[in-house]
Amino acid sequence: MACALALSAGCSSGGGGAGDEPTPEGSNSSAAPSGSAAPAKGSVKVVKTLTTGLKSPWGLAPLPGGDLLVSSRDTGKILRIDGDSGKKTEVGTVPGVEPGGEGGLMGLAVPPDGSQAGKMVYAYFTSASDNRIVRMVYDDKKEPGDQLGAPDTILKGIPKSLLHNGGRIAFGPDKMLYAGTGDAGNGENAQDKKSLGGKILRMTPEGEPAGHGNPEPDSVVYSWGHRNVQGLDWDRDKRLWASEFGQDTWDELNLIEPGKNYGWPEAEGKSDDKRFRDPVEQWRPAEASPSGLAVAKGSVWMAGLRGERLWRIPLKGAEPAAPPQAFLKGKYGRLRTVVADHGTGGGEGLWLVTSETDGRGSAENGDDRILRLKVR
Q1: Where is the composition biased (Low complexity) (predicted)?
Q2: Tens of pLDDT, residues 49-84
Q3: 259-288 confidence digits (pLDDT tens)
Q4: Which of 25, 69, 213, 283 has its CA 20 to 30 A from that of 329?
């Protein structure tokens, strides 16, 4: 049954829905300079509901050829989703996952090219003692449910808690692996350079410090002063953008530079303290509570959980080109992950994952789902 965009998030599951988003609303964020390579006004069209009936989906990783891997936070399972039909196939269960609160099996990443592309899966998850990153051989020729090799832990010791576990991982254009972590409910972790909590980390695919390009060559810490980093992606000029949960006042979009301090817990949002790097944009938590982030068509696209909307921040270089726009408000509920869909023409599309079955949503028939979006 088709699901028109004008309908609510409670529309029935099944075939692909399509429709154009009405005129978007502005944000309460600060004004931004005008003029941009990206259009000041954008558009979003839901061209397909790829699949439905997902349980607590969190991480999403495109595979060579167009299929997707999606993690289930609360079950520890990884599913493969056919990029055309939406058929679900269980890849396997990651051993050692201890779900609880905001923890569990979270971010996924696959090497973008080379001999390991599509043959190795990286995962960020909460164990009994910490948050950690593992890699597993992925053999899709084996029987469904038994396609993952034994996990090889490449980084451990990231603080865990019921809250603020971070969890996003991604390979950068430099082929290094980046991870966004949370402060585990203890703001002191974010300012402690010896702690892996409240940081963005940069490492080799083997989990070693990336060396050149890191503030300290023998440390994986890339930036600090973060409360709970949830989204990571790069623009065409290889600048790193990150979304971050605020506490009660401001959620943030940050442009990440190595060795910079982003202020938490001493600053939330923009401040007058010159020790800290200010966010590029900020939102009230009711409007955002951001999770995943992707860069496509000259804009940052940021998924909102509590805000139940998709934010577009058009860019002009390293600055916003116009005030942010909100799309899909309340149409599909909580939005967890957004990933550029380079299979639809130079990154003009997005994959969007909803999050109504995470214990904080209001799950209805068909939740959770993966949507394919065309954006401008």
Answers
A1: 24-42
A2: 999 999 999 999 999 999 999 999 999 999 999 999
A3: 999 999 999 999 999 999 999 999 999 999
A4: 69
Neighbours of 144 (CB within 10 A): 13
Degrees, nearest 5: CA angle 71-72-77? 80
Whether 94 and 136 have beta carbons less than 8 Å apart is answered as yes
Type of residue numbered 297: K
What tens digit of pLDDT does each residue of 74-111 get? 999 999 999 999 999 999 999 999 999 999 999 999 99
Cα 159 to Cα 196: distance, rounded to the nearest angstrom: 7
Q: Which two tokens stand for residue 141?
A: 């020729």
Provide CATH code, domain 22-358: 2.120.10.30
Pairing verdict, β 44-51 and 370-375: antiparallel
d(CA 216, CA 214): 5
Whole-model pTM?
0.91
Q: Residues 6 or more apart from 194 whose CB is under 8 A from it?
A: none
Distance CA 39, CA 52 (A): 32
Reduced to 3 states (helix: H, G, I; strand: E, B; else coil), residue 343 is: helix
pLDDT of residue 347: 56
β-bridge mates for residue 138, sequence order: 148
Which residue reads 């978007």 in tokens?
24
